[in-house]
Specification:
By secondary structure, the chain is α+β, with helices and mostly antiparallel strands. The chain folds into 2 domains: about 45 residues; about 210 residues, no CATH class. About 45% of the residues lie in helices and about 25% in strands. The protein contains 5 helices and 12 strands. The strands form 3 sheets. Strands 1, 2, 3, 10, 11 and 12 form a 6-stranded mixed beta sheet that branches. The protein has a 3-stranded antiparallel beta sheet with strand order 4-7-8, with helices on one face.
């Protein structure tokens, strides 16, 4: 049988090991916190230029997507209604009374992809120039051929594909035919729901929004009726807080006519 002293010594030894491990974990955490960004900046992009491009373009890409989403799918809306200081594009519209609206952007997903592509084009070019410059500072010979930008809305994400060719050489040559960035955003799902609502607006002049919230439990749909007959829809993902808002004007009633049939929410 072990003596009490031996048990006590074993327990002390185990406690000492745990304390040492805890100190090591804390030190590693501090090192990573202060030096990880510098490590990625100095070394990470040499083996994977996507890291550099992601850090350079991601903020602009995120801001662009948020702005376009808040304005009905366009960076500079041409046909819009002002709502709380923002231009919100009409995606279905008629100027007549008692008439259902006509779709303004029947290919909404593709339209948004093109808008994002055009908005970030100059920033992407700037980031490639900086990437080339940084490689050359590190002693690489660099051959960069800039190509087209492709943006694609996919379930739960947005893909930015830069079809540029980058060849670097120091001791050996490395070639990258394309660089891809992934942005976590469910705009694809919100646009799909917006299209469904717009189809109801174009066919019947209105939509029942509670059905969408019953089916998609993380979805919030706000329907803001305006006094001149327009409706502003605000789709929000309760989890990610991603948002898409747009306007429609369908089966509008003349001012003062059939007031008991018109439900106006000024918000």
């Amino acid at each position: 049988m072990k003596k009490r002293g031996e048990d006590a010594n074993n327990r002390k030894g185990q406690i000492t090991i745990f304390i040492i491990l805890a100190i090591v974990v804390v030190v590693l955490g501090i090192v990573l916190y202060f030096f990880y960004p510098k490590i990625i900046s100095n070394f990470g992009f040499e083996s994977n230029p996507s890291l550099y491009m992601e850090s350079c373009i991601k903020e602009d890409l995120t801001n662009t997507v948020e702005k376009i989403s808040s304005q009905g799918g366009s960076l500079e809306p041409e046909h819009y209604i002002m709502y709380q200081g923002n231009k919100i594009e009409y995606l279905c519209y008629t100027e007549e009374y008692y008439t259902t609206c006509i779709m303004q952007q029947p290919m909404l997903k593709q339209h948004i992809e093109k808008e994002v592509q055009e908005a970030i084009k100059s920033k992407v070019s700037e980031c490639f120039d900086l990437l080339k410059e940084d490689y050359e500072k590190k002693g690489y010979s660099v051959n960069l051929k800039k190509g087209e930008i492709s943006i694609e809305l996919l379930p739960q994400r947005i893909i930015a594909l830069f079809n540029s060719t980058l060849t670097i050489k120091k001791e050996e040559s490395q070639k990258y035919d394309s660089i891809k960035i992934v942005l976590n955003n469910n705009l694809y799902e919100l646009v799909s729901i917006a299209n469904s609502i717009l189809n109801w607006e174009a066919r019947y002049g209105d939509s029942e929004t509670t059905t969408y919230m019953d089916y998609y439990h993380d979805l919030k749909v706000e329907k803001k009726k305006q006094s001149e007959g327009s409706t502003i829809y605000i789709l929000t993902d309760r989890t990610s807080e991603n948002k898409f808002q747009f306007a429609s004007r369908s089966v509008a009633w003349p001012p003062g006519y059939g007031i008991d049939k018109v439900y106006i929410e000024n918000a």
